[in-house]
Amino acid sequence: MSPEQQAATAVNPVTEAGRMAPKNYDAVLLASFGGPEGQEDVIPFLRNVTRGRGIPDERLEEVSHHYRANGGVSPINQQNRELKAALEAELAARGIELPVLWGNRNWAPYIPETLQEAYDAGHRRVLMLTTSAYSCYSSCRQYREDIGMALTETGLDGRLEVDKVRQYFDHPGFVEPFVEGTAAGLAEVRAKLAEAGTPDAPVHVLFATHSIPTRDAEAAGRSEDEPRQFEEGSAYVAQHLANGTAVMARVKDESGLDAPWSLVYQSRSGAPHVPWLEPDINDAIEELAGQGVKGVVIVPLGFVSDHMEVVWDLDTEAMETCANLGLVATRVPTPGTHRKFVDGLVDLICERTVANNISDRPALTDLGPWYDVCRPGCCANFRGEKPTISGADTTVGTGHDPYPSDAAGETAQL
Prior knowledge:
Elements (H helix, E strand, L loop, with lengths): L2 H9 L15 E6 L9 H8 L7 H6 L2 H4 L7 H18 L6 E5 L6 H10 L4 E6 L6 H18 L6 E4 L7 H24 L7 E8 L3 H6 L15 H21 L5 E6 L14 H10 L4 E5 L8 H17 L3 E4 L7 H13 L63
Parallel strand pairs: 1-2, 1-3, 3-4, 5-6, 5-7, 7-8
Helix pairs in contact: 5-13, 6-7, 8-10, 8-13, 11-12
């Protein structure tokens, strides 16, 4: 064990099962990606997303169309305001006195400013909850880096303690809204096909998530002390496949509805020569149409809320592809502020607190519950070393990737 790991363990004792000991936190930080809230914000926002890549504003303007078409406003900030309010209401209903703070990676309110405000308000131990459920660099490790860099920039390192809840991809609170939505979506598509006189026409369920570079996918879940082998060699892929299996099994058990399904990807960005996870959802839809499928249910399994990549890549582009091919299609809601999702997030908070502690850690797949603390070397950062909070080492940078990704959502299509 390195000196850094020993220090982290001394501050944050972890059990052999990957659990951190419960603590007396005095605030919760809701951390997210952020998005523009007006036409004048679009280019500055895209500069933030692509910082360090040297992309000129002219190129950023070329790829800003999905924001421009929506008034320069991404839905993500308002959705986070609504989620913050829902979390505050549920915490209050349970008698848990924990204020909910909010900070973003790429737009106001920025994480460093939020941490400084937390410290100035007297908070000293904060538990971070992110809007990314799965395991890969940009969904987990990068948030730890965001905090590590923010503590360094503000001079709060060693003065303000920040921990993070586990990745919650298979927590019932995240999965069950998709079970409800998928069952409703299947019923809707079959009803429309019946109205068209083709009640027995083939229907397919597409579980959609953010594509990431293949190298990042292969690093997801891989660590120095992780003995498990993941399906397709990636925890990120395996977690989605396991969730798809769990959702379809529950849908069949609870509603009697069933259909073939597959995992597809969206929102690819970066240089064309860099391999990313495939198939793209639009390519998959075209292939299904060629095989005689007449109905499609699109399930945004990789996303917490209906932000721009859901609104544009699924509701606009994918649905247009379906319409052009004559397919009956519907898009299932994301968890958003679904009561089960909000309850589940508060349960995740209570897993880590001394007061109101919940020791049971439910998981709907065999992959979970995931670790509270990243394993050494997990979800490697190929873009260079950065300071992180506990649980992610800082010694795995192996060069610079000029096309960083962000599976948390809202990447520019570059």
